[in-house]
């Protein structure tokens, strides 16, 4: 049984360092991307403060399709270039949105969401999916969150069979 350890108080870098250590332990010995994405989304949701959604969308048939997540039910399919997730996937870059209501074409799956960060999952130059986090707090995410989450996605890719 895996227990989510209480995150240290202090800087975001120490928070993400602690989360990275927990994720490494959680993913060790399991290569299945679906199992690992389910566990990683649960870990992130319970370890990071002020989230109301954390999960993955995976590329299938040229669009993003809902994968493992924690939070309220979500939009099932997202076209490339649509919303924050579709834009991050199309542009192959992390997007931090301080106010989702100001983002053109934002898809409101949960009306409580006020800010969002989306990290593309890329292997061999190909977008395989995205990691999406939402918060009910405006401007919850910043560049430090983006770096910490990008490191978690890199760890995830190294630990799974997704990019194989």
From TrEMBL:
UniProt KW keywords: Oxidoreductase
GO cellular component: cytosol
Residue ranges of every copy of the GAF domain listed in the record: 32-162
Highest taxon, organism lineage: Bacteria
UniProt-listed Pfam families: GAF_2
Matches recorded under PANTHER family: FREE METHIONINE-R-SULFOXIDE REDUCTASE, GAF/PUTATIVE CYTOSKELETAL PROTEIN
Family per record: Belongs to the free Met sulfoxide reductase family.
Enzymatic class: oxidoreductase
Signal sequence residues: none
EC numbers on record: 1.8.4.14
GO molecular-function terms, A-Z: L-methionine-(R)-S-oxide reductase activity
Cross-referenced InterPro entries: FRMsr_CS (IPR000614), GAF (IPR003018), GAF-like_dom_sf (IPR029016), Phosphatase_reg/MetRdx (IPR051330)
Keyword Oxidoreductase among record annotations: yes
Name of this chain's protein: Free methionine-R-sulfoxide reductase
């Amino acid at each position: 049984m895996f227990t989510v350890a209480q995150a240290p108080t202090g800087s975001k870098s120490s928070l993400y360092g602690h989360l990275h250590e927990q994720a490494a332990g959680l993913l060790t010995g399991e290569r299945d991307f679906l199992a690992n994405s389910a566990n990683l989304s649960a870990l992130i949701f319970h370890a990071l403060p002020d989230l109301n959604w954390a999960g993955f969308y995976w590329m299938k048939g040229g669009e993003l399709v809902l994968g493992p997540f924690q939070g309220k039910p979500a939009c099932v399919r997202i076209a490339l270039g649509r919303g924050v997730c579709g834009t991050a996937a199309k542009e192959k870059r992390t997007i931090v949105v301080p106010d989702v209501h100001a983002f053109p074409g934002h898809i409101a799956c949960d009306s409580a969401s006020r800010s969002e960060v989306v990290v593309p999952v890329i292997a061999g130059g190909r977008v395989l999916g995205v990691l999406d986090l939402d918060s009910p707090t405006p401007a919850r995410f910043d560049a430090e969150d983006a770096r910490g989450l990008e490191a978690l996605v890199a760890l995830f890719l190294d630990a799974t069979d997704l990019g194989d």
